[in-house]
Amino acid sequence: MPALTIARGGGYTALMSASADPAEPGFDNVLARLREVVERLEGGNLSLEESLRVYEEGVSLARKGHELLDRAEKRVELLVSSAGGVTTQPMPAARDDDGATGTPGAPGAR
Hints:
The protein is mainly alpha-helical. It contains 2 helices and 2 strands, in the order ββαα. It has a domain at about 25-80: Helix Hairpins, CATH 1.10.287.
């Protein structure tokens, strides 16, 4: 099993493998860039072509962020299961202030 180090940055704690590609942007970098993309798109000062290019970058960043989170989740599950055979269960749905449940972006979500 590869060695693990803990890296802290941007308010997030990430587990990173010592064999991870250091040239690959981390979750914090992806999230920061995605926020910049959203700000540019919301600014409304881009041409249609530029808006499409920036939107494509945002989609790519969102996919990369999901990939990084999925990999981290799998690694945590592996660490937990190897530390005593504990099983993992999905997290309960988040509740809104008015008590409604749902997953953001899911049908019926607000």
